[in-house]
Structure formats: structure tokens, C-alpha cells
Amino acid sequence: MSKKIAGPEIERLVQLLSRLPGLGPRSGRKAVLALLKRRNDLLVPLSEALNVAVEKIAECPKCGNLDTVSPCSICRDQRRDAGLIVVVEEVGDLWALERAGVVSGRYHVLGGHLSPLDGIGPDKLNIASLVERARAGEASEILLALNATVEGQSTAHYVSEQLAPLGVAVSRLAQGVPIGGELDYLDEGTLAAAIKSRRRL
């Protein structure tokens, strides 16, 4: 049994940070030490920023993006192509495409991918709301920009089947996205090539 080397407040910080993606107990401890060493210029501003985030940041009821306004800034932007809805798995994928600057349309965040082994079926994702958007005539094209993983591709297949009876054009990313690749880890050039070379399903 490991001995506790710090007070409960520090232990709780370590436990919480260790739960973040890409961090474990060791990285969590290093992050906590860095925060505590730089209390005034890092820990205090971070604490204030987190409090503001809890109060002001919410999920967009239309597309699932995260923002401080509702609907989100992207859904409100009249300069965007209202005829194109780009479907992504997570908000991080949306941010990756926005960083690349290759999407002029609007988005729809599914909130993950189908994974029967993990108990994630269609009812756990924002698929029904996407179908409703398509049925309401919001878009002339729906681009499935899902990760090139087995789960991402099976999700794309399922979504395209749900959209097929509605007569809306459905396309998907083409070249540039490797099998097993996740959008958030791809460079802007690769994403740009994939968007420009999209193909109909």
C-alpha cells in the first residue's frame, strides 16, 4: 500500500488531474507540482478561468459545439454556407477542422461513435437530431467527417443509412485521412486535402 505524501487537498488535485486524457498519476503529480510552484501566475488564473468556464460555457443546443453563447458563434455566423453540415464525432474534431480553416459550413457533433461493446448505441449519440435537421431541409449536403477508425466508419455507414430516405446528398472525407487516424491529431494540410477531395456515399 502506497503512503500518502501530501495533504488531502493536494491528493485530490492529483486524482482529478490524473483523470484527464493523456495524464496518469505520475503526470498528474507533475502537473500539480508545476501549478503549486507557480501559484500566482498559473494556479490562480487557472482556477479563475475554470470557474468562468463552469458558469458560462455550455453545449450548443443546435450543433453540440461548446461556446459561451447559445446558439454557438458558428451556428450564428451568417457568412457560413448554410447548405453544408459537417458531422464530427467530438468537439475536438470540430476545433481541428476550424484550425485548418477548410470548412465554410456548419457542424453537427455526434458526441462519440457507435460502440456496441461499450454500450454506445444510436440512442446515445446525437444522430436523431441530425436526421431532424436534414428532414427540416437545413442542408443540401451532409459531410461525414468521422475518424478513419473501425468505429468511425461503422458510425458513418449507420448515419448515411438513416439519411438515405431524406434525399439529402451525403459525402465523406476522401484522401488524406489514414485508416485508424483521428482528426484531432492530423495536420491542417492533411485535413484540407481530405475536405477538398470528399466524395459522395
Structure description:
The protein is 44% helix and 11% strand. The protein has 8 helices and 7 strands, in the order αααββαβαβαβαβαβ. It has helices at 8-18, 25-37, 39-56, 73-76, 91-100, 127-135, 150-163, 188-196, and strands at residues 58-59, 66-67, 84-88, 106-109, 141-144, 169-172, 199-200. The strands form 2 sheets. The protein has a 5-stranded mixed β-sheet with strand order 4-3-5-6-7. A two-stranded antiparallel ribbon has the order 1-2. α1 crosses α2 and α5 (91-100) crosses α8. It is elongated and about 60 Å long. It starts with 7 loop residues before the first helix and ends with a strand.
Task: Based on the model shown, name its key terms.
single chain, alpha/beta, Helicase, Ruva Protein, domain 3, Dna Topoisomerase Vi A Subunit, Chain: A, domain 2, 2 domains, two-stranded antiparallel sheet, 11% strand, elongated
Q: What is the N-to-C order of secondary-structure elements (H for helix, E for strand)?
A: HHHEEHEHEHEHEHE
CATH fold-level assignment of the largest domain: Dna Topoisomerase Vi A Subunit, Chain: A, domain 2
The residue fraction in helices comes out at 40-55%
Strand content: 5-15%
Number of helices: 8
Gross morphology is elongated
Low-confidence stretches: none
Class of the largest domain, according to the CATH hierarchy? Alpha Beta
The profile of the biggest β sheet is:
5 strands, mixed
Query: What do the pLDDT scores average to?
Result: 90
Measured distance between first and last alpha carbons: 55 Å
Q: Examine the secondary-structure arrangement and name the CATH architecture of the largest domain.
A: 3-Layer(aba) Sandwich
